[in-house]
Amino acid sequence: MKPLSIITETFSESVIREMTRICDEAGGYNLSQGFPDFESPKAIQEAAIRAITAGYNQYPVTFGEPELREAISRKVRQYNNIECNPKTDITVTCGATEAMIATLKALINPGDEIIIFEPFYENYGPDSILSGATPRYVTLYGPDWRYSSDELAAAFNEKTKAIIINTPNNPTGKVFTKAELEEIAALCIKWDAYAVADEIYEHILYDGTEHISIASLPGMAERTITINSISKTYSVTGWRVGWAIAAPPITKRIRKVHDFFTVGAPTPFQHAAAEAMTYGPEYYEGLKSHYAEARDFILGALRTAGFQCELPKGAYYVLADASGIMERLGLTDDTAFSRKLIELTGVATVPGSSFYAEKAKGSRQVRFCFCKKWETLESVAQALTAKLPK
Ligand code: GLN
């Protein structure tokens, strides 16, 4: 038989999704893949059911139902300080995942480089390969996940086509400050590069931290693609509704790619999403305070169990150092450790190496996600305390 595509040989299956399957088989606590195990708001569920019974069951407008694009445009004007025309600047996609790959497909030519902060959400690796971009990594240094300005400046050159900024950040919980975003913006302008901003955790913030969209900074609207989705904000990760906001010339390209990739995101869920976007500030405050409590609780449990970790400023993950426990268990790599952790405690995590290009950098880390109900978090805390060697 003729060989299959070479490109698909160069990356592996998603470890995040694989860990979910391993966890399901073991009947464990899934603190690996970032999705809530509690119900989404009743109101959004009812809106989806209403949309289905109202007959929204055929293909949507390929680049998004007008109601949803209008709702997105209103929301980003208010929350993100981004002006966008719903007719020309928005593409609704199957989740932020499709928005990212469609954006890169729309931007990248052979030989182009993209800058990615490391550790990074694992999709960005295969996304770069599939779009043909050469990634250049800029390290985020723990414990507070700062980058070096010199290293960032050195990563830009005439081949730089784009930089991916994920704020709040998965897996570190870093929230990029205004000064950092201004520094990145100045480099994008200097090198004529695009900013691809994945802001899916924009409402999950702690300790009074503020979310800033790089598209709102001077000179950035025309060179930024802002990606988001309803998945995390409204706890509906299975609905697959996301979007990319960009100036018309970029949007035109993204829409073409999106149309041939998937035609459209699920129609009834787009209508429900448009309704969810009219929720008042109390909804977002509730989400924030629930996750703030969960964060403090899980951090306490992890530290008691012997992990080293810092409070994330945003998103719902903790990237924890497991060196001490690994040593006590006689293990030297993160994948073996996360498998052992499921076996001993039933707790599923994501091995740290999934978030690094150079796998060894994550070999002492595992990521816990804490978007789970109290019952789950309490059982996890008990299991970790009782079953790990001290
Ligand atoms: N963003 C989530 C995570 O990092 C998962 C997203 C996905 O699996 N599509 O766990």
Automatic annotation (TrEMBL):
Enzyme Commission numbers on file: 2.6.1.-
A Gene Ontology molecular function term of the record: kynurenine-oxoglutarate transaminase activity
InterPro entries referenced in this protein's UniProt entry, alphabetically: Aminotransferase_I/II_large, Kynurenine-oxoglutarate_AT, NHTrfase_class1_PyrdxlP-BS, PyrdxlP-dep_Trfase, PyrdxlP-dep_Trfase_major, PyrdxlP-dep_Trfase_small
Signal peptide: none
Pfam families: Aminotran_1_2
Keywords, alphabetical: Aminotransferase, Pyridoxal phosphate, Transferase
Cofactor entry: pyridoxal 5'-phosphate
One GO cellular component term noted in the UniProt record for this chain: cytoplasm
Residue ranges constituting the Aminotransferase class I/classII large domain according to the UniProt record: 30-384
Record-linked Gene3D superfamilies: Aspartate Aminotransferase, domain 1, Type I PLP-dependent aspartate aminotransferase-like (Major domain)
PANTHER family, per database record: FI04487P (PTHR43807)
Membership in a protein family: Belongs to the class-I pyridoxal-phosphate-dependent aminotransferase family.
Protein name: Aminotransferase
Organism (species): Sporomusa malonica
